[in-house]
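lol forgot to send this yesterday, sorry. struct tokens for the thing we talked abt
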């Protein structure tokens, strides 16, 4: 392991800085404007299929503006993933700073399988061309 990943301040600070840069790019790029500078989802562009991540930039943009309902419209699974990632990062920081073992959702036995199944279900449901499922298509 590198010294940066074991450092109590630099590791989390690097993650926060990288996240801030990405959020800044999304804020400045405004993915809700058609034909903007941010790239379109390659899956949508090539195959015309809404992938599980489609709408994530717009969802993040909406969250950064405090519009939870719009964020959920663009990508509800992405909003849930952001919440889980924030929780996991908080648990990681607590473990790093206190030295105590902090159990988080990703340490549970079937968490990887559950995440995979949820993502696959989200992928299929978003592409069913019948209402009410078609309203999830972005």
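and heres what i got for the seq, position by position
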């Amino acid at each position: 392991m590198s010294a940066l990943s074991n450092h109590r301040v630099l590791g989390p600070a690097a993650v926060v800085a990288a996240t801030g840069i990405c959020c800044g790019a999304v804020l400045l790029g405004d993915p809700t404007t058609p034909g903007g500078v941010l790239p379109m989802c390659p899956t949508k562009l090539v195959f015309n299929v809404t992938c599980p991540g489609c709408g994530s930039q717009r969802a993040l943009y909406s969250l950064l503006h405090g519009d939870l309902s719009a964020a959920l419209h663009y990508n509800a699974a992405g909003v849930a993933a952001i919440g889980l990632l924030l929780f996991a990062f908080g648990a990681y920081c607590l473990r790093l700073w206190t030295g105590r073992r902090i159990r988080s959702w990703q340490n549970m036995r079937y968490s990887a399988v559950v995440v995979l199944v949820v993502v696959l279900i989200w992928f299929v449901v978003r592409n069913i061309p019948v209402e009410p499922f078609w309203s999830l298509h972005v």
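Residues 21 and 27 are 10 Å apart (CA to CA). anyway ping me if u want another try
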